[in-house]
Amino acid sequence: MTTEIANRDFRRPGRGRGLLDVPKHTFLLRLLVDKELQVRYRGSILGILWSYVKPGVQFIVFYLALGVFLDLNKGLENYAVYLFSGIVLINYFGEAFGNGARCFVGNGDLIKKIYLPRELFSVSTIGVGLIHFAPQLLVLLIADFVVGWHPNLMQLACAVVGMCILTAFAYGLGLIFGVANVFFRDSENLVDLLVMVLTWVSPIMYAWERVADKAPEWLLHLYLANPITVSVELFHYAFWYPTLEYEWHVPPHLLSMWTPLAVVIALVTVVVGDLLFRKFEGNFAQEL
């Protein structure tokens, strides 16, 4: 008996294994996702329909301000599809990133009372974001079919890759800022600012060529290396480009260089976030 106990692999109480704990606790993960949805829509009349209302209002405002008043719709065929395909992505990124940055503080009572793998809180924000992303994607697909969408397998694969890049990037940033927010509450205030900046420095409401025409080469390379830029352009390649009747100039080396680089950046973000989480999660309860 003594030998059996001595040979066991013990861990310090209150410390988990980061992402390695998630596959073993899928039931808890589903409960956390359900909890977040119930809390968010408690007392709400529209409920999940808010997933349509917010992007719908954003689309109308941006389309009128940029497409009609600034005439961007004249330079881009099917500008409505171009714009909406970017809006659904940045909304998903903003929700996953923002909720990830606030999840540990927001669940402080649970963290202080019981122990469960705490990275589940961060992963659950991705699940909630995907649930809200699905109806917006459905609207985008309907609009695509209306204007004559004819994608190939390569373009559909690019959409999946773009979604994976954005998910990893949002999760990694959310984890980094979520850990920081436990110790410095100012961190969550930076999230909304970053999302606003990233929205405007990504080709969501304008074509990337506008940056190429005016930015120096080094700034253009930095712009194209942004994982959000890559994800948005991959979505444009999948959902907007197949609706055009003319050849569209994709960013140079989008598939051969910028996409692999964005994958690396997103994965590095996840690794850094996971390392920070493992290092500091043992102090969460006392800090909260």
TrEMBL record:
PANTHER family: INNER MEMBRANE TRANSPORT PERMEASE, TRANSPORT PERMEASE PROTEIN. Residues 46-280 form the ABC transmembrane type-2 domain. Pfam families: ABC2_membrane. One of its GO terms (molecular function) is ABC-type transporter activity. The chain crosses the membrane at residues 56-72, 79-100, 120-147, 159-184, 220-238, 258-277. The keyword Ribonucleoprotein does not apply. GO terms for biological process: lipopolysaccharide transport. Keywords: Cell inner membrane, Cell membrane, Membrane, Transmembrane, Transmembrane helix, Transport. One of its GO terms (cellular component) is plasma membrane. This is Transport permease protein. The keyword Mitochondrion does not apply. It is a multi-pass membrane protein. Signal peptide: none annotated. Coiled coil: none annotated. It is found in: Cell inner membrane; Cell membrane. Belongs to the ABC-2 integral membrane protein family.
